[in-house]
Design brief:
With 632 residues, the chain is of the alpha+beta class. 57% of the residues lie in helices and 8% in strands. It contains 24 helices and 8 strands. It starts with a helix and ends in a 10-residue tail after the last helix.
């Protein structure tokens, strides 16, 4: 039932109360009734706004309690309705909506009628006489009905837990109802012994009660602001840590926002508690914070990870949890971050949790993180169509992912994608990662020499090939020093010799020119697709190799920037081997071999390619610029 349905239900109940009461109108003392009504209208503007919600609290309940003791039910209801209307139309802060007016009049009518009935039932059938206990019962009933109705409508309207609204915004007012009951009882006592005119003395205590309200609510507002400051501090901590992740891996900004939108929507469908939802919100941004401990060349590698690299990557959930343990979040963020790579069947890491032993937030995060990762470009592959990505995630339901989470995701993923696109992406501040610091000539301990990385031990049947490749490379380098060759000439001769040792369908040589890799040579199948590439340093396969000075084995050729930008072109190449070629000042070029079969190159192919090209860096660096792309 929505908020409008609840208001309609209250309105019907209020109409029924009036229909029962008003035909029996009676007033034993019209002047007393008129004075009570005027007094109620005078104090109706004395209301205080409640902290954190759209609601107010007034002192008019005191006249309802007086009406229960002194007046008939119709008179009591009329005072309640009149004072409510006065609250709305006496100097309103904003335009009154009809549905708000209907709700407030209805809930006051119902609360007053039930409290009136409670007092007389207790007095007649329990105590067999009027007394303070009956008055307390009426005050408690009025408090319960009034605050329950207010909490329900606020919870339905603002999508907050009704019980939490009641405990956080209304429960504290219970003592004031008891003070009001005591005041009403005192006035009733004075009326019996002095006359009803003494009830006018209640106006000063009402104002004092109002001032007490305001002081207490001011204290609540101060505490609320302090809580918001703490919450904002946690939020700024989250944003700062997320910025640290983006400084390490520039591809995560949009991904994190999309994962957050997906995850929070699934949290609503799965009815997570507020603390679980807040934890998931933080974890959706921070789940990869542990990548700060993973070497950057592994994170940005545009190819498959080696076993050793994967072992280093697998530490990031544990390290992330250890980092976030120091933040002392008020909700369980750490278990989600630690478990976001666990799998439903227990084959995940780091702890091999299975099924519902995995925190629900981690189960949601794992599924949505995988879906968005598949649907986004990665260093090692192009993005999949969203439907195809969803099909892959659905196929892992019950194996890698919670089937219940997958079922909801499969039902809503198109809607969630629209929601994610509708939310504007907040660009993080630009970090000065490219800044060159002029001061500081050397570390205190001095500089270390950079030893050449040793070759991995080759298999015995390829030792001779590696030696032969090294010899051919040395001969080629010697020939280049004695001739005025262009880089294209060097690469063409290298291609001829290398083809006999390492089978490939295409080869490209990219020379580093400041921050760009420019094609010096492209030959073989699809050579025209490589011939005009200008690859920024750090991007794609070759850009990553040039920036990190490390080779890539069996990377995806399609991730080279600009390689397949033209939709009319199609490439059959499926795997790449790319190695850095070093000159006098570091990497001067990148040599890339391509094949049509996936995972076609072996570790021995890598060793041979490194061996034959190991001496060509200086020759390529000093060679004449390329005139035009060639082929072999």
């Amino acid at each position: 039932m929505g908020s409008r349905g609840f208001v309609v239900l209250l309105a019907v109940a209020a109409f029924a109360c009036c229909a029962v009461a008003m035909p029996h109108w009676q007033s034993s003392d019209p002047i007393k009734f008129a004075c009570y009504l005027i007094a109620a209208l005078l104090v109706s503007p004395l209301k205080a706004s409640l902290p954190g919600i759209e609601g107010t609290l007034s002192v008019n309940f005191l006249f309802t309690l007086l009406g229960i003791l002194e007046l008939s039910l119709p008179e009591t209801l009329l005072i309640g309705v009149a004072s409510t209307l006065s609250q709305f139309y006496w100097k309103p802060a904003r335009r009154v909506k009809p549905i708000q007016l209907i709700f407030n009049v209805s809930q006051v009518t119902i609360s007053s009628a039930i409290a009136y009935g409670t007092y007389h039932l207790v007095a007649r059938y329990v105590l067999h006489a009027p007394g303070p206990v009956a008055l307390v019962a009426a005050a408690v009933t009025h408090f319960g009905c009034n605050t329950a109705a207010m909490s329900t409508i606020i919870g339905l309207t603002e999508e907050k837990p009704i019980a939490k609204v009641w405990t956080g915004s209304y429960l504290w007012s219970f003592p004031y109802y008891m003070v009001g009951a005591a005041t009403a009882g005192l006035v009733h006592f004075l009326n019996a012994h002095i006359g009803w005119q003494s009830s006018l003395l209640v106006l000063p205590p009402i104002y004092l009660m109002y001032r007490s309200y305001r002081l207490y609510l001011g204290k609540l507002e101060t505490e609320k602001r302090h809580a918001e400051q703490v919450s904002n501090l946690h939020l700024r901590t989250i944003e700062a840590l997320a910025l640290a992740i983006e400084a390490k891996d520039q591809t995560t900004g949009e991904h994190l926002q999309r994962v957050r939108v997906y995850a929070l929507e699934l949290a609503k469908d799965l009815h997570l508690t507020e603390d679980e939802t807040e934890a998931l919100k933080a974890a959706s941004v921070l789940h990869d914070i542990g990548k700060l401990a993973v070497p950057e060349h592994i994170i940005s590698k545009p190819g498959k990870l080696t076993r050793d690299e994967f072992e280093k990557m697998k530490i990031h959930p544990v390290v992330g949890a250890e980092i976030l343990e120091q933040v002392n979040f008020p909700y369980p963020v750490v278990p989600i971050v630690r478990a976001h790579h666990e799998k439903w069947d227990g084959s995940g890491y780091p702890n091999g949790l299975a099924g519902e032993d995995i925190p629900i937030g981690a189960r949601i995060l794992a599924a949505v993180d995988c879906l968005d990762a598949l649907a986004c470009d990665r260093q090692y592959r192009k993005a999949l169509p969203l439907d195809e990505a969803m099909a892959k995630v659905a196929a892992e339901g019950g194996t890698s992912f919670d089937p219940k989470v997958v079922a909801i995701l499969q039902r809503r993923y198109i809607e969630l994608e629209k929601l994610a696109h509708a939310e504007p992406l907040q660009a993080p501040p630009k970090l000065s990662t490219d800044l060159k610091i002029e001061r500081g000539l050397a570390p205190a301990a001095g500089f270390a020499e950079s030893p050449d990385a040793p070759l991995q031990q080759a298999t015995s049947n390829h030792l001779s090939l590696v030696a032969s490749a090294r010899q051919q490379g040395a001969n080629l380098a010697e020939a280049c020093r004695d001739s005025s060759w262009s880089a294209e000439d060097v690469a063409a001769l290298l291609s001829v010799r290398l083809r006999r040792l390492v089978p490939h369908q295409a080869m490209a040589l990219y020379r580093l020119n400041r921050e760009l890799l420019l094609t010096a040579f492209a030959g073989g199948e699809n050579a025209q697709l490589f011939s005009s590439l200008q690859i920024p340093l750090g991007e794609g396969l070759s850009g990553w190799v040039a920036q990190n000075g490390k080779p890539i084995l069996n990377g995806n050729p399609s991730v080279e920037p600009g390689y397949l930008n033209d939709p009319t072109k199609y490439s059959t190449l499926r795997s790449a081997l790319a190695i850095p070629i070093s000159g006098r000042g570091g990497v001067s070029a990148v040599l890339a071999l391509y094949r049509t079969r996936s995972d076609a190159f072996t570790a021995d192919d890598l060793r041979i390619t490194e061996a034959i090209s190991s001496g060509l860096g200086l020759a390529i660096e000093t060679a004449e610029p390329r005139a035009a792309a060639g082929g072999v």
